[in-house]
Structures are given as structure tokens and as C-alpha cells.
Amino acid sequence: MDDLLAKAMQGVDPADPGAFFVIFTNLMRLVPWGQLILWQVVFIVVGAVLGGWRGRLGATLVATLIFGPFGWIVPFLPRRPAGPPPLPGSKKR
Fold first, then answer.
1. Do residues 76 and 54 touch, judged by C-beta distance below 8 A?
2. Which residues lie below 8 Å from residue 65, measured CB to CB, with a gap of 6+?
3. For residue 92, what pLDDT is reported?
4. Are 47 and 41 in contact (CB under 8 A)?
5. Cα–Cα dist 41/56, whole Å
6. Residues of the chain with confidence (pLDDT) below 70
7. What pTM was estimated for this model as a whole?
8. pLDDT for 66
9. What is the pLDDT of residue 86?
């Protein structure tokens, strides 16, 4: 933890009003962005395969983009009914 704090505080004057932004950018440099993006692409591809297989491609892609691998459950959820059933005696069927 001390090592992470030292990396975040590198070149920062705590009394400076803009210290928060410098610390924030120092922390963002420590994030492995390449791996995060690669895994998100893998999650979206698997979600597209599952959604295409179950006929819910668009909903699965959006859910996977937002929730990651948790969006994979969307194609297995029951579909919403298209509308209310017709009233008895109506000619619409």
C-alpha cells in the first residue's frame, strides 16, 4: 500500500489546489488499460455469440457492454410478451 501511495504522490505538492488531479492522473497511469479493453472485447464477442444463438443479439450486446460478463444472462431471461392478449369477442387475433 505504501508503494502505491508513493507512486500516486510522486511529484505532488499536497498544498497545491490541483493536487487531486495530479494524484488522479498518476493513479490512472497505473491501470492496465490494454488488458481491460482486451477483456471487454472478449466479453462482447462471447455475448454476441450467445445473443445470436438465442435471437437477442441487440439486448445482449448492450447488456454485455454495460455489465461485462454479467450481461450474458440476458439471452436466457424470458422474453416480454408483445402486448396484452386480445379481448374476448374482438376480431383482432
1. yes
2. 40, 44, 47, 71
3. 61
4. no
5. 18
6. 92-93
7. 0.68
8. 94
9. 79
Closest CA to 9 of 19, 18, 73, 51: 19
Buried b (16+ CB within 10 A) or exposed e, 39-50: eeeebbeebeeb
Segments in the chain forming alpha helices (H): 2-8, 19-30, 33-54, 57-67
Three cell numbers, residue 80: 416480454
Distance CA 4, CA 68 (A): 27
Which residue bears the cell 445473443?
A: 51
Cell of 71: 450481461
Cell numbers at residue 38, please?
Answer: 482486451
CA dihedral 19, 20, 26, 27 (to 10 degrees): 150
Look-up: residue for cell 493513479? 27
